[in-house]
Amino acid sequence: MSLLYNVPAFSILLPMLAGVICLVLPARASRRLTNAVIIVLALLSFLLLNSFLDGAPTFTYRMGHYGAPVGNEIRAGELESAMAMMFLVVMMLSLMGGRNHLRSDIGRSKVNLYYISVLFLLSSMLALTYTNDLFTAYVFVEINTVTACGIIISKEDGYTLAASMRYLIMSLLGSGLFLIGICLVYGLTGHLLMPNIQEAVNQLVRNGHFQAPLQVTIALFAVGLALKSALWPFHSWLPDAHSSASAASSAILSGLVLKSFIFLMIKIFFRTVGPDVMTGHAILNLLLVFGILGMLLGSVNALFEKDIKRMLAFSSVSQIGYIFCGIGLGTIAGVSAALVQVVVHAVTKAMLFIAAGGLMDASDGKKDFNALQGSGKRDVVAGAAFVVGTMSMIGLPFFAGFITKLTLVTAAAGAHDWRAYLSLTAIVLSTILTAIYYIRILSLIFGKNGSEDQDGEVRSRRFLSAHFRRHLSMDTEYILAILAFIGINLWIGLRSDVLVDIINVGLSTFQ
Amino acid sequence: MNNYIVTNLPEVAAIILFGIGFSNLLLARNLIKKIIGLNIMDTAIYLFLAAKGYVDNAVAPIVPPGAVDPDLYVNPVPSGLVLTGIVVSVSVTAVLLALTVRLYEEFNTLDIDEIVHQLRVKDKEAIR
Amino acid sequence: MYKGTRIQTLYNLLSIVFTILLIGILLYTVSELPVMGDALHPANNEVAAHYLVHGARETGALNAVTAMILDYRAFDTLGELCVLFVSACSVYILLRVDAGRKEEEVEALDRRYEPWNDAILSKAFLFLVPAVFLFGIYITLTGHLSPGGGFSGGAIIGAGLLLYLNAFGLEKTERFMNRIRYRRLNCGALGFYFLAKGYSFFVGANDIKSVISVSDQGNILSAGLIMPLNVCVAIVVSTTVYAVYLMFRKGGFNI
Question: Between 1.10.3720.10, 1.10.8.60, 1.10.287.3510, 3.40.50.300, what CATH number should domain B9-127 receive?
Fold first, then answer.
């Protein structure tokens, strides 16, 4: 273990330090620094995950000289390090793939500000993953909100301004509820560290004291974080925010930011409140019902959308519904399915957003369906990504999405009551709807060219081979990123046992 | 059921303020009013939190060296949390106000619905 | 004019119902909570007692709140400074001069805010501003001994900077507070904070003996890292307040 013991704290502090240094760096240097930080941290997280898989015990790390209950702690285990690894890899690939868009969307003088936001966002997501303390979680939730807003507004037009305003307002309502939940928990238990709270809560439940405030607190946490992770009735901000941002920002927001809140919610339910209280809790049923509604209505909204990025954003609403469906089942199998979906959706949706950026390049930067006709042939890389993404979203075997559908269906069938029937029906219906709108867009981008006067043969097959023979350019990064995403997707699909193992082992040591 | 609503008056006031702020943030259409709502909401939460740390007949937690009786001082934890919370809310307010300035320059209105409407009209024109 | 469609009305109605429900539930919750001000309140447990009884010995700070936010729970405070920094960056992204605004327009707008060589104002502030600065510095430096600390001290110094700016104009202020100095101060203070706290997290978690001792309680130069950290916090807070104000006023520094 030895030095690897310091990796979690190091991976929270290093991006912050790099972010501060970026303030005095020029654009190019700040990009290189960001990439270097992400690569170093991804390697370290990989080593940490490996040591856990070799049987190293999970540990808590004191932030300072004094441990629980007076100090501040972070905790690392299989789940945390796997999530951190996923965040780092997807963020790296998103930044690589969206780089040409960043150049055109963001003025040169504020590129370093963009990377400051990205680094702090990364740091906050890692902190939310590793933290063992509720109030630290609140502070980093706020950093997450402000920086997410920062990477949306870096592309300055009316759309992003209005979208990030709505995003901030909804998000702050969520933080308010979350914070008052923390106050209530503190008032009831006198602790802020998760294991101590769990102990105190269990004692309260045993003695039968303060039951009503406890239930309200759990509900406040659930609603506050659901607002931030765009569970169905609270999703109204998501399509605008995620569709108006630059390609890399959209990929990061849709793939990662929502997931960090969901992971925090899982952490609060099963580590802070404790599985004893949460099993069969009414709020889980509520999350299940809203998740199912989101699965169906998000898909229906996506079906009527005529703008590729908005369609992908509504698809995110639907996929978030799957995650909440898994959590709402309330069983270990359900949570495990939800976590598989977290990873799979992060990888797939980030790829689709980057590819959508490529398709827009091939269609004069327009994103409505008329302009996109035939764009899959003008940019075969993005076309391939959309084929893989579609297969994965529908859940065909050998693709990552198959694993989520499989684990979720198994988990749902294991519930043996109304929840099983409801969620199985919803999964089938939602899969059909997903298939319809994704296959429609496939047929569109591989169909006839819309208008004759489009010049955008950016990355057709002919141009691609010429491109590789001539020289490597910024497009190379985009192509490599998409290929890496496709590779990861297929790897998850073919070697699903690795991912499922990590998640199951992690969940077994999670309490 | 034990009814403490009379003894917990500061907390009741905090909750009412929280409700006022929350509904303003959710329902007011003017952006400045929304931001004021946010600030009322945050302040209410700090009042709620500060009330948690209050102990009757106790003084501020400045502890002279030597052994002490902890019951003489109020709980220092909520004070620290409130301090953190205030800084967070100030920063978020700055970002919101900056966004409002830019939105006003762009759309000449502070009404969020009106802004969304203008964007929809622009969208339709772009497709046509 | 865009006045509510039917969906809008429905949404408003639902929001009102949701808010009323929320307040009702919360009021009911408060009526069930433990009695306020009671020494046996669950919040007044061994954690709070530990801060009060052992705080001075373990951290050297007599002010238990300072001990808590800069030592026991320093990680939160680190995050807090990051929020300040990040929000200043976001404001900078939004309000920078070249963000689609014309330079002359901004200058014309800025004229309104420049002071008009008002004799009473500048004479009064000549006495007031140093006092404000001194007060802020005092509060910062004695943060571990008495009420106060980096955040409050920094806010006061920041207010002093704004007073100076509004009394004597931007040109005079920029002689000692300009973009370069802002960046250096901010980066230096934040960098020092990160390194100091990174060191203390590292030695704390790995059970290495720290070279920083916390003897001599009650003295101004005591409490190990707490006073330097308070100074860093004050620098970050005051420069951020000043920079954000300038950003709103004219979109950035002149020099």
Answer: 1.10.287.3510
